[in-house]
Amino acid sequence: MLIMIVGAGQVGQYLCEKFSGEGREVVLIDRDKDKLQRIDRDLNILTVHGSGASARTLAEAGIARTGLFIAVTDSDEVNLVACIMSRQYDVKTRIARVRNEDFLTPGMSLNEEALGIDLIISPDWAMVETIMQLVHASEAFHNSEFAMGQVLLMGYQLHEHSPLVGLTLFDLKRRHPAHQYVIATIVRDNQTIIPHGTSVLHAGDKIYLMALKKDMPQIEQMFKIASHLPRKVFIIGGSHIGYMVARQLEELDIDVKLVEEDPQRCDFLSENLGHTIVLNFDGLDAHELLNEGIESADLVISVTGSDTTNILSSLLAKHHGAKRCITKITRHDFIPMLGKLGIDVSLSPRQVAADMILRYVRRGSIISVATILDTDAEVMEVKVPDHRTFNQVPLKELDCPKSLLIGAVVRDQKAFIPSGSTVIKPGDILVTFFSQVVAKDVENFFFPND
Q1: How far is CA 67 from the centre of its chain?
Q2: Deepest in the core among 149, 290, 402, 430, taking most CB within 10 A?
Q3: 360-446: CATH number
């Protein structure tokens, strides 16, 4: 199946990397010839110079044999027109990225069904959703759902006084045998570890913990992790993301102060928000921030259009005593260093939007695949094939590839955390973790040729 991607921006490039890395046939269309030449040198894909809204360009690129069509340019119009034009061909799945909120509002005449597009996504909405998940999980730097929302994957950093420090995973199981969870990944000194029973937890480790959503509050309590809603939040940047986050925080009765430099944007924000206090000054003005009480903020969310402003405003807030910060960062390659600087959570719009697309298109035997930010680990939901290797076999007897861990099982639409004696069956859905370096081995394991 040919995958056609229109738009060589950050999301388009990331999707090309993911799909081409899996050995899939990918063609990328863009109007920037220099950008296409750079991508062509780095990736094993076909690049086509032209507009995705041109029938001639689509035909030259191979639209007639395309199974998956993804339009992610910076233009809503180009993305929508390209998807609509692809309807003339037998394209199985069409996805468009848009920024105009009208296309995302239920009941509007221009929606997915009316346009004949399978999925319309907004990077801004995706960012807001991710930010709000982290607002509710105040001690976590990562929060994502799997198994139709029944399973949570949470990321926590272990501090030196954490009761987990110095214990092996076997120790934890012996101390708390009644709780069902899996520590799926450990990040230590920028190295990703898929752990085993004898792995020892260290202060400073970032752990990714998987459990059933209904059990997560009890597990947080067991590990002395006290998540709670913030009382006082600063938002730096009155962009669409900042505005939508403020609206949702207001619904939770949280005190919100929103800092925006543009006076006209401040007028809009003041007129359309309820009890949010809108402040008209530069988000890097330390004097003004201190006057407004940034040092006592439970959470600072920096979502301006400038990576520099977002990073520096977060560092400024942390320096003066703010408890936690969530920072929007466009330059994905900067993310690994931000944790060392003291920034709690870094969110990449590219990653958030691309992972939403990947989750949608990975249907069939592979239900979804997601990259864990700031690691080289991946999470894959895979449907167990009808093969002798997997028929009524306990997990501990499976000859799994190195660094593959099975965190949850979904059977008859109900999720549970497995043990080594859990017997899997064809048709089960497994939520698995593995290092990207063994991705091909994992694929061959679940889909053997014989």
Answers
A1: 24
A2: 430
A3: 3.30.70.1450
Please give the Cα distance from 217 to 201 (Å, whole number): 21
Residue 80 token pair: 């929508």
pLDDT value of position 109:
47
Which residue in this structure is represented by tokens 């999301």?
11
Inter-CA distances, 202 with 195, 222, 435, Å: 13, 18, 20
- Whole-model pTM? 0.72
> What are 156's strand-pairing partners?
207
Q: How far is CA 12 from CA 71, 91, 266, in A?
A: 8, 19, 33
In whole angstroms, what is the distance from residue 47 CA to residue 61 CA?
8
Q: Residue 168: what are its φ and ψ, rounded to 5°?
A: -85, 165
**β-sheet bridge partners, residue 325:** 300
CATH 3.30.70.1450 residue spans of the chain: 360-446
Taking the C-alpha atoms of residue 93 and residue 71, their distance in angstroms, rounded to an integer, is 11
How far does Cα 50 stand from its chain's mean position? 30
pLDDT tens digits, residue range 14-47? 889 888 877 789 999 999 999 999 998 888 899 9
Cβ atoms of 211 and 182 closer than 8 Å: yes
Give the single-character DSSP code of 306.
-
Question: Is residue 318's pLDDT more than 60?
Answer: yes
Return the CATH number of 2-121, one of 3.40.50.880, 3.40.50.720, 3.40.190.10, 3.40.50.2020.
Answer: 3.40.50.720
Half-sphere exposure of 53 (CA within 13 A, CB side): 11
* β-pairing verdict for 299-302 and 142-146: unpaired
b/e per residue 7-33 (b: at least 16 CB within 10 A): bbebbbbbbbbbbbeeebbbbbbbbee
What would the mean pLDDT of 155-182 be, rounded to a whole number? 87
Residue 293 scores a pLDDT above 90: yes
Higher pLDDT, 225 or 57: 57
287 CB contacts (<8 Å, ≥6 apart)?
A: none
Q: What is the pLDDT of residue 313?
A: 94
Distance CA 406, CA 345 (A): 26
The DSSP bridge partners found for residue 154 are: 143, 209
Question: For residue 208, what are the β-bridge partners?
Answer: 155, 185
Q: What is the pLDDT of residues 348-391, one digit of tens each?
A: 887 777 777 876 765 445 566 666 656 677 788 888 888 878 87
- Contact (Cβ atoms closer than 8 angstroms) between residue 77 and residue 96: no
- Domain limits, CATH 3.40.50.720, in the chain: 2-121
Which amino acid type is present at position 315? L
